[in-house]
Amino acid sequence: MTVSTEGMKVNWGSRTLRACVELLSSMRFSISLLTVICIASVIGTVLKQQEPLGNYVNQFGPFWAQVFSLASLNTVYSAWWFLLILAFLVVSTSLCIARNTPKILADFSQLKEDVREQSLKAFGHRAQAALAESPEAAARRIGQTLVQSGWKVKLQQRNAGWMVAAKKGAVNKLGYIAAHSAIVLICIGGLLDGDMIVRAQMLLNGKSTYTGGGLIADVPAAHRLSERNPTFRANLLVSEGTQSSTAILNQPGGVLLQELPFAVELKKFSVEYYSTGMPKLFASDIIIHDKASGEKTPARVEVNHPANYKGVEIYQSSFDDGGSSVTLKAIPMSAASKAFEIQGTIGGISALTNGQGPGAEQLTLEYTALRLINVENFAGSNGGVSGSGADVRKVDLHQAIETRLGAANKTVTQKQLRNVGPSISYKLRDAAGQAREFQNYMLPVKMDDSADNPAMFLMGVRENPVDAFQYLRIPADPESSTATFVRLRAALADPAQRELAVKRYARLAVGSDRPELARQLSESASRALALFAGAEAVPVAGASAAKVKPVAGLQAISDFMEANVPEAERSRAGEVLVRILNGVLFELTTMTREQAGLKPLPQDEKTQAFMSQMVLSLSDAPHYPAPMAFELKDFKQVQASVFQVARAPGKKIVYLGCAFLILGVFGMLYIRERRLWVWLAPQKHTPEGSNDDSTGSGHAMHSVSESAGKSQATMALSTNRKTMDGDKEFEMLKTKLLQAPL
């Protein structure tokens, strides 16, 4: 029997209704629906689901973000059109099964023993042989042999002989029923475990999504789902030492709160890391508090090892900060800012005021994340060796091939991973609501293996979440702090401190016996230091004196040289001016350290490297887009677990569907249905002397008689797939069944 791809034909209803039933129950319609579901699933896999709208705007732009939202491509698996397609697929596949199952079951027990003996000659696998047995004896022998080989056999006696009909591999047709039933079961399970029931409650019970903020306890009942909700999949965040019984269902445009019949208390959270900084294992030791009985049940939840309580699965989804307390120290980046310490909690906010008086700037400090482990790649170019690029005079083909062959971990770029310690992430939001994101490391980071180069405090900033962080590098002083940088920033902003440093530099460089040279050097040093500090405006070349550029750092000195020094003399004058600037800054550093009661820096290569980096840091500091940077001084970590709690009645249905699918595919692909017929008729004998040819106009008459005890066998084999195994099986059956030749 061949399974039909056409739909069910009904004799009732209008012509349009009959056409709709035929289309809906056709296999081509089911395949079309499956194709659409596959395409939608690819979109749902490639495009991150249920992300905030701002993430799509940043990544794809406002136009495509709006398209994704209108077409529900950001929530494919809960979109109304996806659920509707699943429902149509269930109906269509069910009608296909209902149409073909009676035919399959009827054909399952039929051996088609009524086939005509002349029809056997049209089969591709056929054979004839003369047997030294009577038709009845041969039929019983052949039937018994087939039964012993697992064939289902039926013998039919006819007036002209015996027909042996046999069948094997009938389970192949049951594979069709099993595979299509699997599609129905999996889709039903998916619909039960999807958002269909939640949306039905929102439509029928007046539930709506919540878009506000505040405490969970203050959310009205209109945004809460009952403990008796038959199906849900929500997230539950629990901090160490606390418990929670309300999970959150993310919905388009807001959230719903799902009440649980129990509360989850997190006793301890454990996490282990790989050398790359990726989590290796995270697990939670919890206590489940039953609301009805008050019973306490301890459990351990790990990835791929959930806990089950009253039909609700508790999965370890992720982990987060549970409200760690941090102490931050402000590093002033502007003249109006002052150094201070502030304490906060991750997830909380603090109000700040930059400056004094009515024009003071109002800021909001948002503590976003605390990370204890930060593994970064410090490999330079060419596998960690710093250089200027490839040597074009040398082409090592052997090495080039070796880097691309062999184990999968062979890469052209080698990694040098290092844990650089804790970091703090925060946002500074101005009065207009505009915010920048910052990430600062607690410990100074050694950027290379040189013993002379100082370690750096890295202060990262970015305007948008999709951008990479840009870092201000502040060299760590001998006390492994940023105090020298802070003191130098303050001294540069103080004209008296700058003047004192210039005098010290001139006295050490020239001495007291050459007052005119000392005066000229002091003027040059004072001008260079004022430009570097941003205290002196730089006129724009070719413009009026009133038109100035408010710049500082090395850029200000460069602009001054372009405006005041002829191009031919700029290189030499620039070297002299930078040398003077470095000397004055060193004296300013020495002076500020003496004022702080610290030893002056020794004049060696290590100090020279430190001062070179300090000059660059002081030059970049005016471009820092915030009046202050915050350095992590101390913290007390509190971990939190993110659980996924799910009541999934459709899970068992999906498992049953998967089992049916495996059986169905195995039955259809690996089991061949074969039908065998052997027609046994008494052998007829032609006497000697007879002639089969006719000559002239006369006809020769043949005297034909039956040979007693002998038979003529005609065998044919039919299979649903033509394979080499079928050819071999037929040859084996021909030898085995027709083994008694005349």
Task: Report what the structure shows.
This protein has 742 residues and is an alpha+beta fold. Helix content is 36%, strand content 28%. It is built from 18 helices and 27 strands. The strands form seven sheets. Strands 14-15-18-19-20-21 form a six-stranded antiparallel sheet. It has a five-stranded antiparallel sheet with strand order 1-27-26-3-2, with helices on one face. Strands 4, 6, 7, 8 and 9 form a five-stranded mixed sheet that branches. The model is unreliable at 381-395 and 688-706 (pLDDT under 50).
Summarize the structure.
By secondary structure, this protein is α+β, with helices and mostly antiparallel strands. The chain is built from 18 helices and 27 strands.
